Amino acid sequence: MKIFAPKETDSAETRAALDPAAVKKLIALGAEVVVESGLGDRSDNPDAAFETAGATVTTDRAGLLGSADIVCRVRKPIDSEISSLKDGAIHISFLDPFNEPELIEKFAGQKTTAISLEMIPRTTLAQKMDAISSQANLAGYVSVMVAANRMNAIFPMMMTPAGTISPAKVFVIGVGVAGLQAIATAKRLGARVTAFDTREEALEQAESLGAKALRIDLGQTGSTDQGYAKEMTPEQLEIQRTEQGKICAQSDAVITTAKLFGRPAPILIKADVIAQMKHGSVIVDLAADTGGNVEGTVLGEEKVTDNGVTIIGTGNFEGAVSKHASQVLGSNFANMIDHFWDEESKGITIDLEDEIQSGCIITHGGEIVHERFKKD
Ligand code: NAD
To answer: What residue spans define the domains of the chain?
Structure first.
């Protein structure tokens, strides 16, 4: 079985699907691994490191896309690269399937087994392949680093002969994987952290990390069977925004991470709240890639409002730590292939009855097979 990892083509992407450790693991299974030359250029893994790990390094991208049994990449492919995949090839990447119906059709037409990393079920068994979590964790860390870097103030309290400097006040909205890491990172830097989530269990986790939980009476909230938050009503959102606004006004940094699976993120901070925030405060919007939690966030941009609030919506925050992002992503890919590896045939067995596979395989055998994307 030949596994190919092409170089990412989007200039905004710094990560790679595989790192040398992942290559080693795949080779130990008995796979042949080929990577495109330059795959790890932006994640500090030179071609030589992939060769040492046992991969073949190639410049023949088109040839390998057409001959590989499994293609591993970070971002969804362009149309012409789907057409070149060989019949029955397995393609694993982020696919954004909710917003890409044509891409899915194209994969089906090519008889590709297209696996969407976003759709890997949130189960204990699948945790080792959960790329959403592995990347969100790093994004949470980076969000605090970025906030600290943009502020003209420090995070920890300092008692010095020249006087006492108060600790920074950080407000984390959305306490999932990214939010928890943001809290832990801000606490390690000495900030006072307040956190809010619509899920009570998330607030308890925030408290266990030393954050103060903001509790707002919103009536019924809750989560889906996958652990994601349920969408709130417009009335609930209005109450949330009002209560949160008071904390935002006192905060030096606000980190928003509230996403809704498969849907645009809710707007949690509107212009009236930003107008009350302190000069020099910073908002890092980790939900920027699904529309943003902050009114006026523009994906890929950072801006300063008239009242001196910096709003950062650059997106792909994990890409700022591309070495580790590629390490854990590579591990997710290798773990997935390993999990479904068949020792006898030295290949992956596709079984649409399997809970993990049925959760993340979108197309197979010329059809859209995933329940959520099937055409009636
Ligand atoms: P996410 O990125 O979809 O959302 C981030 C956070 O925003 C969530 O905690 C969510 O509750 C919160 N949120 C949504 N709407 C909000 C609102 N209006 N106001 C405030 N917060 C809001 O979620 P995620 O981080 O990918 O995962 C969420 C949860 O899923 C985790 O905390 C965990 O419990 C569970 N999970 C389970 C597994 C597993 O079992 N393998 C793996 C990963 C995550």
So the answer is: 2-119+322-365, 137-315
The pTM for the full model equals 0.95
Superfamily name and number for 137-315: NAD(P)-binding Rossmann-like Domain (3.40.50.720)
Q: What is the mean pLDDT of the chain?
A: 95
Instruction: Indicate the residue type of 142.
Output: V
DSSP 8-state code for residue 224: -
Please tell me the chain's helix, strand, coil percentages from 3-state DSSP, rounded to the nearest 5: 40, 20, 40
Residues forming a β-bridge with 159: 164
CA distances for 266 relative to 24, 75, 217, 293, 339, angstroms: 41, 24, 18, 6, 35
pLDDT digits (tens, 9 = 90+) for 304-359: 999 999 999 999 999 999 999 999 999 999 999 999 999 988 899 999 999 999 99
> Distance between CA 256 and CA 146 in Å, rounded?
13
User: To 10 degrees, what angle do helices 177-188 and 200-208 make?
Assistant: 20
DSSP 3-state of 175: coil
Q: Give yes or no for a contact between 284 and 143, defined as CB atoms under 8 angstroms apart.
A: yes
Which CATH number among 2.40.50.140, 1.20.1740.10, 3.40.50.150, 3.40.50.720 corresponds to the domain 2-119+322-365? Answer: 3.40.50.720
Mutate which of 198, 233, 235, 294 for ligand 1 pocket (most atoms within 8 A of beta carbon): 198
**Shortest-distance atom of ligand 1 to CA 199:** 11
How many helices and strands, by DSSP H and E, does the chain display?
12, 19
Look at ligand 1, atom 10, and give the residue with the nearest C-alpha. Answer: 229
d(CA 371, CA 168): 47
